[in-house]
Write a structure and sequence with these properties.
By secondary structure, this protein is an alpha/beta fold. α4 packs across α16. The chain folds into 3 domains: 111 residues, NadA-like (Rossmann fold, 3-Layer(aba) Sandwich), CATH 3.40.50.10800; 122 residues, 3-Layer(aba) Sandwich (Rossmann fold); 82 residues, NadA-like (Rossmann fold). The protein is built from 16 helices and 13 strands. It is globular and about 65 Å long. A 5-stranded parallel β-sheet has the order 6-5-7-9-8, with helices on both faces. The two termini are 41 Å apart. Bound molecules: 1,3-dihydroxyacetonephosphate (13P) and iron/sulfur cluster. The site of iron/sulfur cluster (SF4) has 13 residues, from loops.
Length: 367
Amino acid sequence: MVANVSVIRPVTTPLNEVECAERIEAARRALGDRLIILGHHYQREEVFRHADVSGDSLKLSQAAAQSKAEYIVFCGVHFMAEVADILSRDDQVSILPDLAAGCSMADMANLAKVERAWRELSEVLSPDEQITPVTYINSAADLKAFCGRHGGVVCTSSNARKILDWAFSRREKVLFFPDQHLGRNTGYRMGIPLEEMVVWDFDQPMGGLTPEAIKRAKMILWKGFCSVHQMFQPEHIHDFRARYPDAKVISHPESSFEVCQLSDEVGSTEYIIQTIAKSPAGTRWLVGTELNLVNRLAERFRDDGKSIHFMSPTICMCSTMFRTDPESLLNVLEGLVEGRVTNRITVPAADAEQARTALNAMLALSI
Ligand code: 13P
Ligand code: SF4
């Protein structure tokens, strides 16, 4: 059964929402152009409405790189605020309103495990000659630095295809981390057969792979995934199509291969929004991405006669994106008004420099 988003509502903050919103706006006015608030599409509405710029990971990293504001407050998750710190000037300050807002997928890869994989791969191949490391932007800064050191690059869900084209133009293979699904879905669309994409199980010696499997593979996919997007299942799409044969299905590429294969469209959060916006009035959509965004789309397009359904029958929100609430945003902003910087995200200089190399390569390829 597919749930209609109009009946699913996340629990909202019990504090006085109106007063909180007014104080956030007052702090924004007091800080003026010294402040920019960046808001990812998965943020809850009460936070999202205060963003100066909203977008997917690529758009927000470009906004962070271009901003002249002294304070970049990132309503998103930890790796996003790290990217803002890396791409901004030294005298700019990147702030994450709730320091516990991480990304469970990003946590599935760490430097020790990736370096071990690189060492183990060197028993079979010459990694620095044969493999381009590509990290999804949903990863810690030291993994972006690893890519910078080894001739690799960062990608997001909206530029993964371009980035992989570039990666393969340099070396014959790609080690892609941490999201196996984005890697597989993109690789397959580029024409790489499934049997040439192997999964690196980071808990096993040699990734659980034989030397022959590694030599045959074009893509080595880290065994990571998004706990939100893994909830979407092929049967949700089958059930929906049985009820609404003319409807369209759109999914985020962090969803499984089977879900993406059954979808009419696959793309980043920004792509999902634009595709639904461009669709004719009266279109019915099943959307496989995070609930706060799907709820927003349902409301935004209701008057156009578009009907937007959430793919899973259970509520699956990104709990870490949800950690940023109006109170935490208010606390950091009122601190800034009083001259106090709280929740600053700083990437150590050595990591920042190498990560910047990999991020700038991505930005140059994304124009
Ligand atoms: P987008 O770059 O598509 O917004 O994706 C970010 C993300 O974390 C999706 O889970
Ligand atoms: Fe990370 Fe998934 Fe949340 Fe995106 S939706 S921030 S990948 S846990």
